[in-house]
Write a sequence for this structure.
């Protein structure tokens, strides 16, 4: 029985190795991916123009109206025993969080956090890998963040005026910006839950 010689150099091995279509396809995909931009500024502008800016604008308009036509701490019933308009000035975060923190520390902390959150949200909105649902949530959160940031810069405190209550139940007074942040977070959480865990490609 004869035994075929094993090649000992690249030139001898060439006839043994035919073209690998799978490898060629993978390499072509990698090369194409290198040239694909990872940022989508058109979607960033679309989300800012259609969601973030209108939310921040609506938030400021409603606060301006309340501050102009409702005395501080006065309450007007919209739906008796359910929904009131109550003009308050909140030194804390959304839903009056950290309102008891020392004023200088609180002011610096909230300004730094708001600016950092704005920068991070802009990056997330500009990433091409961000899903449409997550982009919607980020745009809402950014609109609410900017709305409350404007208050802190202009007034030192945030105008709150939406008051839900019923019998012994009383929800913290909030505003349009707080609502946008809450809805945005809910959209992201629901989207993450529905999408499920990412598929494991390690055994592919």
């Amino acid at each position: 029985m004869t035994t075929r010689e094993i090649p000992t150099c690249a030139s001898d091995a060439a006839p043994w190795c035919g073209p690998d279509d799978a490898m060629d396809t993978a390499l072509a995909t990698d090369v194409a991916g290198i040239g694909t931009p990872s940022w989508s500024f058109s979607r960033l502008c679309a989300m800012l123009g259609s969601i973030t800016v209108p939310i921040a604008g609506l938030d400021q308009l409603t606060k301006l109206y309340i501050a102009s036509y409702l005395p501080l701490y006065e309450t007007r019933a919209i739906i008796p025993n359910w929904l009131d308009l109550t003009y308050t000035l909140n030194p804390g975060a959304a839903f009056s969080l950290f309102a008891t923190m020392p004023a200088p520390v609180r002011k610096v902390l909230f300004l730094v956090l708001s600016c950092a959150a704005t920068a991070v949200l802009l990056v997330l909105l500009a990433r091409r890998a961000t899903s449409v649902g997550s982009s919607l949530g980020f745009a809402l959160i950014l609109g609410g963040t900017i709305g409350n940031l404007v208050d802190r810069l202009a007034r030192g405190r945030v105008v709150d005026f939406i008051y839900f209550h019923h019998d012994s139940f009383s929800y913290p007074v909030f505003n349009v910006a707080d609502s946008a942040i809450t809805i945005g977070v809910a959209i992201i959480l629901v989207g993450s839950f529905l999408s499920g865990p990412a598929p494991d490609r390690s055994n592919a």
About this structure: The radius of gyration is 28 Å. The chain has a mean pLDDT of 82. The chain has one domain: 40-168+177-195. The CA atoms of residues 134 and 189 lie 9 Å apart.
